[in-house]
Automatic annotation (TrEMBL):
A Pfam family hit: Pribosyltran
GO MF assignments: guanine phosphoribosyltransferase activity; hypoxanthine phosphoribosyltransferase activity; magnesium ion binding; nucleotide binding
Chief location of this protein within or outside the cell: cytoplasm
NCBIfam families to which the protein is assigned, alphabetical: HGPRTase (TIGR01203)
Protein name: Hypoxanthine phosphoribosyltransferase
Organism name: Otariodibacter oris
Enzyme superclass (EC): transferase
Domain Phosphoribosyltransferase stretches: 15-162
Entry annotated with the keyword Cytoplasm: yes
């Protein structure tokens, strides 16, 4: 890890207030669409904290499942290959799937994961991300719910790491590298 310090980007209070708003919209959407079997899928490891706070505010029956995806650089960004390292434990055929993600950057992870899950014939697949960096996007991803749109800064906290540190912070911070 390079010498660095953190600057708060989104406070813990703002994170929680936004999650309450997202949960309200998500509850409304799945009630409106008469959802009977909702599976909330968290992408590990980054989404664990967001997932825990979000599902507590959902007011319809939900299953919770997790998936670990990993991307391997093959020289250029555009040929990045995303693999499933740990698959879901349960079946999603005929169910509504809500993918919960911490951050979307290039979009490779979510476009590949949603493509793979759609092959399993779920009733629907929707995406909720806490953070979105649209300026970094390389592949298009349909995202239903975005917590915060952020500039192209390296962020940590609330599940998101720098060399596996800072996932436990209850707020989002920018990493400032000290030269
Ligand atoms: O839009 P993309 O460019 O594909 O990047 C976004 C992905 O990168 C991060 O995961 P990371 O590989 O750091 O794993 P982690 O969740 O275990 O921290 C993040 O959690 C997303 O899954
Ligand atoms: N830790 C971390 N991982 C990322 N992956 C994509 N963007 C980011 C970021 O800002 N921080």
């Amino acid at each position: 890890m390079k010498k660095h310090h953190l600057n708060t980007l989104i406070s813990a209070e703002d994170v929680q207030n936004r999650i309450a708003e997202l949960a309200k919209e998500i509850n409304h959407d799945y009630h409106y669409n008469h959802s009977k079997d909702l599976v909330v899928v968290g992408l590990l490891r980054g989404s664990f904290m967001f997932m825990a706070d979000l599902v507590r505010q959902l007011d319809l029956p939900v299953e919770v499942d997790f998936l670990t995806a990993s991307s391997y650089g093959t020289g250029t960004e555009s040929s990045r290959d995303v693999k499933i390292l740990k698959d879901l434990d349960g079946d999603i055929c005929g169910k509504d799937v809500l993918i919960v993600e911490d951050i979307i950057d290039t979009g490779f992870t979510l476009s590949k994961v949603s493509e793979i899950l759609k092959l399993r014939e779920p009733r629907s697949v929707k995406i909720c991300t806490l953070l979105d960096k649209p300026s970094r996007r390389e592949v298009e991803v349909d995202v239903e719910w975005v917590g915060f749109t952020i500039p192209d800064e390296f962020v940590v906290g609330y599940g998101i790491d720098y060399a596996q540190h800072y996932r436990n912070l209850d707020y989002i911070a920018k990493v400032i590298i000290e030269e």
